[in-house]
Amino acid sequence: MNANEYSDGYEDRDICYDCDHKCSECDCVCKFERIPKPLKPNRTRLKCGTSSGTLVFPVETPAGVTFTLATVNVDTKRMKQPCIQLEFANNIITTDATIILNFQVFKQCRNQLTPIPVGPIWTFSPSTEETEGNTIGNTFSFYVCDCDTTCDECCIYSVVVTQAGITTTGITTIINSSFAAVIVDGACNY
């Protein structure tokens, strides 16, 4: 690393400006400026999201009800070919419950009016024999990649859960939701 290179992506330079011409003399004034420099390829960033907290599906929650479980903001500023891996995990506790939950990631960037889906729908459905009369804890996780993002774009990714198919019985609780983005700049050169 040069003495002038810092991890914040700036180079230190003295910039001189001509100020005054008096009697054929040129007085030069120098000032310190921080000028952005191109960043190196194959950089990686980790961005952790925020959870909406504990979610309890009450008995007889109708099909089609949706909740946002977690979000993460991603900024691809100064990246040439960003690719984002989104990772989600949570715990689902069911007590004598019959439930089908669909999870999906959505993204909304600054010029979009509505969020668009990213990747497939993941379905959670505990077996009836397992939950009947019991309290069962399950870990549910998935990941998806989004390489359809342009440079210098800010996007909000959200994980949405939808009660699917049937009206719930029993009690279902979703806790400890975590959502993170690993952003890699795949550009080969600058």
Shape: elongated
Q: How many distinct folded domains?
A: 2
CATH class of the largest domain: Mainly Beta
Structural class: mainly beta
CATH architecture of the largest domain: Sandwich
- End-to-end separation in angstroms reads 18 Å
Order of helices and strands: EEEEEEEEEHEEE
Report the biggest beta sheet as strand number plus sense, adding barrel if it closes. Answer: 5 strands, antiparallel
In total, the number of strands is 12
The H-level CATH homologous superfamily of the largest domain, spelled out, is icosahedral virus
Separate helix tally:
1
- Oligomerization category of the chains in this entry: single chain
Unreliable stretches covering 5 or more consecutive residues:
1-30
Structural summary, described in words:
With 190 residues, the protein is an all-beta fold. The chain folds into 2 domains: 1-37, no CATH class; 44-185, Sandwich (Jelly Rolls), CATH 2.60.120. The protein is built from 1 helix and 12 strands. It has one helix at 128-131, and strands spanning 10-22, 25-36, 44-48, 50-51, 55-57, 66-75, 82-98, 101-109, 116-124, 135-146, 154-163, 169-185. The strands form 3 sheets. Strands 3, 5, 7, 10 and 12 form a 5-stranded antiparallel sheet that branches. The two termini are 18 Å apart.
